[in-house]
Amino acid sequence: MRAVLPLGDPAADLATAGGKGASLARLSRAGLPVPAGFHITTAAYREFVAGFRDEILRAAAADPGSIAALFADREVPDRLAEPILRAYAGLGDGVAVAVRSSATAEDLPGMSFAGQQDSYLNVSGPAALLDAVRRCWASLWNPRAIAYRDRHGVPHDEVALAVVVQELVDADAAGVLFTADPVSGDRGTTVINASWGLGEAVVGGQVTPDVITVRGGRVAQVRTGDKKVMTVRTATGTEDRPVPEERRRAPVLDGAEAETLAGLGARIQALYGVPMDVEWARCDGAFAILQARPVTGLPAPAEEWNDSLKGEYLWTGGNLGEAIPDVMTPITWSYVRLFISEAMSASTLPGFDLVGNIGGRFYMNLSVVHSVAAAMGVRRLLGAAEEVFGRLPPGLEVPLLDLSRWEIVKRVLPVAVRIRGRVRRNLRSMRAFLAASPARCQELRERVAAAATPGELAGLWEREIRPYAVTAFRMLEAAGRQGNATLVTTRRRLRRLAGDTDAEAMLTGVNADGELASMGLLTGLSRLAAGEIGRDEFARAYGHRGPHEFEVSMPRPGEDPGWIDAQLAGLRDLRSGTEALLERQRAAREEAWARLARRHPRKAARMRARVRRWNAVVRDRESARSESVRAFWLLRDFTVRAGALAGAGDDVFHLYLEELLGLLGGDRSVLERVPGRRAAYERYAALPPYPALIVGPFDPVRWAADPGRRTDLYDARASMPSVAEGGAITGFPGAPGVVEGVARVIAAPEDGDRLKPGEILVTTLTNVGWTPMFPRAAAVVTDMGAPLSHASIVARELGIPAVVGTGEATMRIRDGDRIRVDGERGTVEVLG
Fold it and tell me: Which pTM does this prediction carry?
């Protein structure tokens, strides 16, 4: 093997030229602007150390600090010095060079070894060159290099060192470039660090460089550093000097230069096929590439979950989005899609997504709902949709689907006919299913726990778990379809007859003729606090309901004694208060009915019967929803057991359902997708909740970074003004009554202990998991919601004033503000 090779020689591979040298050879052959130079091969190193190699290994184990002297005491023999100096002369007469170490365990995809061996800049003359080469060889054995190899399990007797000698770029600026963001792992971003002088100050961390971010070939962001120090050439080598005051905060690169440099980085990444860490220098306006190695420790590329990019649609997080408030793991999203396909198939339009995943959060496509309503000639029913999904802001134009009316009708009618027959059949068996479901779910959970092999669990899924879940979801569909008109029209008729306040009182009492599932968690906790039931019975009957009841990666209350303890602590002093609220509301209800009977004696009995039907429909719907949620507890058990049997642990939460079933079938390759999914989940979960309404393409990360962001509406079609200060906050009248008090703005139910008795709960949304807080609240105010949402139903039953669906309450009300809530008019005033 030769002692010296030309820089671009194809023989300059890892074993011959070390990691750095092999990379520079590859760059040179690809035509990239690499300074001229040559390699001193590992063969030259091995020949030099042959006579004292055993001494080196003994010293490495006992006294690494003594190894440098072993090298310094030996001259480079003529048979090595001659080809080295001949190659040096070929670069020019006395040219200044950079002499860089290049180990065989260096610049590798998993280990960079960056900075472990030494390099020397501005070396001139034959004697100085040979001395620098010898010191590079010795640096293979400095204490930090030895320790680094020990940490990474690299045997000392297998390593060797090559040296790269290149013309020194007399740089006026230099730095490093990453072809992927080294912090976020974003492969679509190039990050450039730039400073004055040679690059050693940047690489060594002695200076705060400029940071330029390039996306899509264009500069996206520039952060100018305070560059106090720069490395410069001197007559004897290099030294650090202060940067002149006028240049410290001046940008090193202009936009065109940054984009040119990013283009070179893209070429290098294309050459290697992986994100690269590139050292660069600029001299007289031209760029040179000094080194390139794969980026190590780069976070896995996060997937993008964003159905808003599919087209210009109106998405809402209302209604079901309130029940699924969390960023969903992939397996939860799979189960939610199964749920939607069975429980809401009547609302679907073949060829379009009724629901979407935007940054991991659940949204419903209102463009589908509005387009179908327009095509079927039932726009008047969109008012009923407001009772469910919430009110749209005045002037908001809903983008409709690009389909003709006939095409929509042709797609919808066959679905509607099929669903109508299915609903009719399921209604006949609904009550029996709801009665048997708790015991059946418990039986299946026990069988999941007993499954001994992946194959046994997969068979149980196919034969029994999936059919049970599908049946539960279809019963919710049936329960919801039996009374849509009743739910909307009864409330309106009663308001016309009795007035708003009496109507809301008369619509309460759903819990009186049978337990309302939305109140079940509060009822169960109250019974548990009173000693009427034990914890096991509470877990069986109510333990599936909670604030995160759809997210299968999170434990249910029935699995979490700490959660139960926290809720009991909050209820301990309020049990009598809860009963008093219900009794007060019962009295108000009966007084309202008495007033109606006096004013409309002929209509009161018929209206009371109609309200009883309303109550039955609400109970059926809520009970069916509760059993669907119970099915999600079974799905959680199935998923957790799959992870245990397959040896995959919580990685299974980052698989989609078909992948999870594949894993149970022995396909472990699906686990390769987990790091990117986990990265996406963690990125989205770190962001605040997104706007209740989204129109068009939406970037959750950029929205979250905007200090003027709005949480009520994002419309990509127009610039969004900031929320207006002053004036009343308006929403739906959720439950009547007027209250003044201290606002307690709470972001998550886990912070519920901050709500003190008599304070007003202000939050983005509520679901069943928030119910134990309601007896402590003097009133409830939410950003999201509608008259048929959870907050409205529970607040009415307890007689607590509520204003829901304000869109902006959490943006305008500060924690601790004194506010007035008018639940009859649907207004909230900030008093100070």
Answer: 0.73
